[in-house]
Each structure stands twice: as C-alpha cells, then as structure tokens.
C-alpha cells in the first residue's frame, strides 16, 4: 500500500528524477545483540525495525515486548502477541543458558558479542526474502538457509561446529522457518496497514544555505541544508540555471530525533563563481513546487536582524520617554494616578512629533 502511494506520487512528480523518490521494498527485521562478559554475566538487547524506523523494543528485565507506536501491534491478536513474547523470552533465556553452559565446548572466548538479525523483505505485498544471520564479534558467523544452519566462511571451523550441533534440533529449525517465512510477512502487512497514517505522512522539508571559506584559498564551501522531511526519499542538488552542478556532494540522510530526516549537500566553488548558483529540493511533500534557494540572496537574510533591531530600539526610546513623562507628571500633580494622564499626554505628544 505504501508502495502504491509512493508510486502514485512518483507519477505525479515532474522531472526525470522519479526513481529517487520511489521506495519499492519494505524490510522488517528483528535485531538481537547479546553480550557475554564471563560465565555468569550476559545481556540481551532486542529491537524491531521497519526499514529504518524502530517499531519495537525488548525489556529484558521483564521479558516483554515494548511497542513503540500505537500501531506496533499490527493486526495481531493479543493471544498471538503473548505467544510470540513467550517464544522470545524462552529463546533469550535458553540461548544464554546454553552458551554459558557449553560456551567452552563451542570455543567462544569471553568477553564476546553475538548479533542476530532476522526478518523478511516485501516487494509490493509479496515476500521476496526471509533471512536470519548471526555474527560473532562483528563478523559473519552463520545463517539460516532453506531449513538448515549454514556456516559462513569467516566463521571457520568454529561456525561449522556450532551448525553441526544446532542442525540436530528439528523443532528449532521448523520454528525459525515459520517465523521468518510465515509470521514475519503477515505481521509486516498488518503493521503497514495499521501504521499507514504515520508511515504515509508527508512532512515538508525546511531548507537553508550556509558557507565557509575554504582553507584560506579563494574557494568557498557552500552547504545546502534540508531538514525535517518525511518520508526519506529526497532529491537535493546544486544547480546553475537548469544545469545540475557536477560538483554537488550529497551526505548521508541522517535521522532527526522526531523521526524526520536531515540531509546536506555541499559544493566547493571559487568565490567568484558562487553567484547564480541555487539549491533545488524535490520531495513528495512538496508536490511539484520544488524549494529553490539562490546563493547571494543570503544577503537579505542578514538584513533580517536589522529589521528586528530597529523597531526594538525605537520601542526602548519610546518607553524611556514615557517614563520621563510619568515622573514629570508625578511631580506636577502628586498623588494623581500617573498613567491615564500620562497616556493621554504622551499619545497626544507622540502624534505631534510624528507629524
Ligand atoms: C562478570 O562480568 C560482570 C560485568 O562485567 C562483572 O561485574 C562481574 O564481576 C564478572 N564476574 C566474574 C565472576 O568474573
Ligand atoms: C531446499 O531444500 C529442499 C528440501 O530439503 C530441496 O528440495 C531444495 O532443492 C532446496 N533448495 C535450495 C535452494 O537449496
Ligand atoms: C493481518 O493482515 C494480513 C494482511 O492484510 C493478513 O494476511 C492477516 O491474515 C491478518 N491477520 C493476522 C492475524 O495476521
């Protein structure tokens, strides 16, 4: 559904950069990070991710799933979720126990870390990939393929030994198979549907320019900042007229804390050639109204503080003058309330002075 909407947007968007704005695949994965300090100390962290958005956490104290969004339960019933939670709880404690008991046999050396990523990928509603991969000390170790555990070349003989052991457990293999091939795609479709308000929201980017001189040379580093947009696909380019500037360098799209995205695109130019350059931003939230910022129009930005300061100074002068007027009044007519008189007089005077 997300795909369909994005496709529709892409069709509506003008220009030849549609491919940059289309998001076709959706990936859901569960990430596990287990740290083993010694024979008696281990810690498990778990989380669920829909592409780059975290949807679930794991409370290892209570052994419960943390649902990070109102829609994080998808369309699964409480019963099914409780069963999954129990499965994860048994898995985490069982895994820790087994490794603590026979870690030496498997020749794991303390301290060590295991990372597991498992999930499925969907392409317009159809499952294209299901996977489970394990890394030991940050290096590929083994994976689950076609109903059996396969060692990675990097895992060497240690991975082979581990696979030989766990391949004997048919129940585990069947459970894993069912989880990644059946439960995962079903859950993701439910998630996409329940979370569509959030996942299909459109948040417009804000854009601004900045620059800095480059290593004391005549070069300028121009930076086009684009922030606060959602969804992630975006197109940002430095242009001269209608021509894309080949020197544009795009950074990584970084997450903001509120779930929106940030991107900067930089350009090194000779200071004299900076005039006439502009930064163009195209995003699904903008329809066909690209944001265009012209370099050099920055000057008007510098005038903004002046436009604020001048009226401020005038206000202060007026206030001081009013105050003076009040004390004068007080001396003149002692206990009389100051302001009514003062205001009358001052506004009258002010009118006179401005005329
Ligand atoms: C095991 O590691 C934990 C965490 O680093 C530490 O606090 C504890 O003292 C260690 N225990 C032993 C028996 O080495
Ligand atoms: C997967 O396993 C099945 C049965 O064990 C076999 O028939 C099939 O060819 C295997 N597929 C691959 C890609 O290895
Ligand atoms: C949830 O939605 C998906 C996709 O629409 C559907 O296949 C599934 O049967 C629904 N219900 C459950 C409990 O998975």
Automatic annotation (TrEMBL):
InterPro entries: Ig-like_dom, Ig-like_dom_sf, Ig-like_fold, Ig_C1-set, MHC_class-I_related, MHC_I-like_Ag-recog, MHC_I-like_Ag-recog_sf, MHC_I/II-like_Ag-recog
UniProt-listed GO biological process terms: antigen processing and presentation, endogenous lipid antigen via MHC class Ib; antigen processing and presentation, exogenous lipid antigen via MHC class Ib; immune response; positive regulation of T cell mediated cytotoxicity
Sequence ranges assigned to domain Ig-like in this UniProt record: 205-285
Gene3D superfamilies: Immunoglobulins (2.60.40.10), MHC class I-like antigen recognition-like (3.30.500.10)
GO cellular component terms attached to this protein's record: endosome membrane; external side of plasma membrane; extracellular space
UniProt keyword terms in alphabetical order: Endosome, Glycoprotein, Immunity, Immunoglobulin domain, Membrane, Signal, Transmembrane, Transmembrane helix
Protein name, UniProt field: CD1c molecule
Bilayer-spanning residue ranges: 303-322
Cleaved signal peptide residues: 1-18
One Gene Ontology MF term: exogenous lipid antigen binding
Localization (cell): Cell membrane; Endosome membrane
Primary location class: membrane
Keyword Membrane annotated: yes
């Amino acid at each position: 559904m997300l795909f369909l909407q994005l496709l529709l947007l892409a069709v509506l968007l003008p220009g030849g950069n549609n491919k940059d704005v289309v998001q076709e695949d959706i990936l859901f994965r569960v990430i596990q990070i287990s740290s083993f300090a010694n024979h008696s100390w281990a810690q498990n962290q778990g989380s669920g991710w829909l592409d780059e958005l975290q949807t679930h956490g794991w409370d290892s104290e209570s052994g419960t799933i943390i649902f990070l969004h109102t829609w994080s339960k998808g369309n699964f019933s409480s019963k099914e979720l409780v069963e999954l939670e129990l499965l994860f709880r048994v898995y985490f404690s069982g895994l820790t126990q087994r490794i603590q008991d026979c870690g030496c046999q498997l020749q794991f050396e303390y301290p060590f870390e295991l990372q597991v990523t498992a999930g499925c990928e969907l392409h317009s509603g159809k499952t294209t990939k299901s996977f489970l991969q394990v890394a030991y000390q940050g290096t590929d170790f083994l994976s689950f393929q076609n109903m059996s555990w396969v060692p990675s070349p990097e895992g060497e003989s240690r991975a082979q030994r581990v696979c030989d052991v766990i391949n004997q457990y048919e129940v585990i293999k069947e459970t894993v198979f069912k989880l990644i091939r059946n439960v995962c795609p079903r859950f993701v479709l439910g998630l996409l549907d329940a979370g569509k308000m959030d996942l299909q929201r459109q948040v417009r980017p804000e854009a601004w320019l900045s620059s800095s001189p480059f290593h004391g040379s005549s070069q300028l580093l121009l930076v086009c900042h684009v922030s606060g947009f959602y969804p992630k696909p975006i197109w940002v380019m430095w242009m001269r007229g209608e021509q894309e500037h080949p020197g544009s360098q795009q950074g990584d799209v970084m997450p903001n804390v509120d779930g929106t995205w940030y991107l900067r695109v930089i350009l090194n130019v000779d200071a004299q050639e900076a005039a006439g350059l502009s930064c163009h931003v195209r995003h699904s939230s903008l329809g066909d109204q690209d944001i265009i910022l012209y370099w050099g129009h920055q000057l008007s930005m510098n005038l903004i503080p002046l436009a604020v300061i001048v009226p401020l100074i005038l206000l202060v002068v007026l206030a001081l003058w009013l105050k003076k007027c009040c004390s004068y009044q007080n001396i003149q007519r002692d206990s009389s309330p100051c302001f009514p008189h003062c205001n009358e007089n001052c506004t009258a005077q002010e009118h006179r002075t401005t005329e």
